[in-house]
From TrEMBL:
Family stated for the protein in its record: Belongs to the protease inhibitor I35 (TIMP) family.
Coiled coil: none
Family matches, as PANTHER family: METALLOPROTEASE INHIBITOR, METALLOPROTEINASE INHIBITOR 3
A GO cellular component entry from the record: extracellular space
Annotated localization: Secreted, Extracellular space, Extracellular matrix
InterPro entries tied to this protein: Netrin_domain (IPR001134), TIMP (IPR001820), TIMP-like_OB-fold (IPR008993), TIMP_C (IPR027465)
Name of the protein in question: Metalloproteinase inhibitor 3
BP GO annotations: negative regulation of membrane protein ectodomain proteolysis; response to cytokine; response to hormone
Keywords linked to the UniProt accession: Disulfide bond, Extracellular matrix, Metalloenzyme inhibitor, Metalloprotease inhibitor, Protease inhibitor, Secreted
PROSITE patterns associated with the record: NTR (PS50189)
């Protein structure tokens, strides 16, 4: 578990609807490891088709690095989806997410290979780097 320890110390069950037509998710138990996102309500963990759920081995290297190191650097940032052009950020703490503009849709190149992080100047921007991140801030000019 990456987040949520303050709400749930131990997760034994994950609740979802019975079928995909009701937005339920099917997991192959004891066969794969998964990254499962969802919400905690009334002491239970819930997930569904609208949440991001993926087999761990299908995550990109950037997503794995993001979960382990980089995503925490974007906690003060907000990702703003762009559904049609033109799109603009309206504050310095926003990253414009444009994956929804392509015919491929979600998950697109941006969400699979970039991280929205806060830069030294306080602005949020997309980052794609291969060097291990600085513990506090990543400079956008890193490789």
């Amino acid at each position: 578990m990456y987040k949520g320890f303050n709400k749930m110390k131990h997760v034994q069950y994950i609740h979802t609807d019975a079928s995909e037509s009701l937005c339920g998710v099917k997991f192959e138990m004891n066969k794969y490891q998964y990254l499962i996102t969802g919400r905690v309500y009334d002491g239970k963990v819930y997930t569904g088709l609208c949440n991001f759920n993926e087999k761990w081995d299908r995550l990109t290297l950037a997503q794995r690095k993001g979960l382990n190191h980089r995503y925490q650097l974007g906690c003060n940032c907000r990702i703003k989806p762009c559904y049609s052009l033109p799109c603009f950020v309206t504050s310095k703490n926003e990253c414009l997410w444009t994956d929804l503009l392509s015919y491929i849709g979600y998950p697109g190149h941006q969400s699979r290979h970039y991280t929205c992080i806060q830069q030294k100047e306080g602005f949020c921007s997309w980052y794609r780097g291969w060097a291990p991140p600085d513990k506090t801030i990543i400079n956008a000019t890193d490789p």
